[in-house]
Helix-hairpin-helix domain-containing protein
Amino acid sequence: MKKKYQVLGLIILMICSIVYDFQKPDVQKEETISLSYVILEGEFLKTGKYEFEGEKTIQDIIDEVGVSDQANLNSVKGDKIVEDESRLYIPPQQEHAISLNNACQEELMSLQGVGEKTALKIIDYRQQHPFETIEDIMNISGIGEKTYLRLREHLCL
């Protein structure tokens, strides 16, 4: 007799559980807005942290923020998608800016701290991946953030 009540109790519990699942309100997930940011430096009219939603190109940011009259827009490829938490730098125009995509070995070696081996690494890199921003120079082994910061005013694409 005790066993009958236990089985009956389990059946009632299962029925209650099923009914509860059907009556439970649907919980809708709230859409979270994912903000990305980039650090703007150099000739942007607004420098510092810039937050945005979705996917943006460098040209989108230039159009929204603006750049000074002295901005060297040859140093960026406008249609490149901006990566979250990256840094964008637009240098001022200079007569003797060195093109990462076109300079010969001797021109690259004229940069302070760039020797023959580093110049060859730059040339090898651009043959496989043309530079889209001057920040891409940090993809070359031996060129870190400090070297990039020292060289960026003298570079263009």
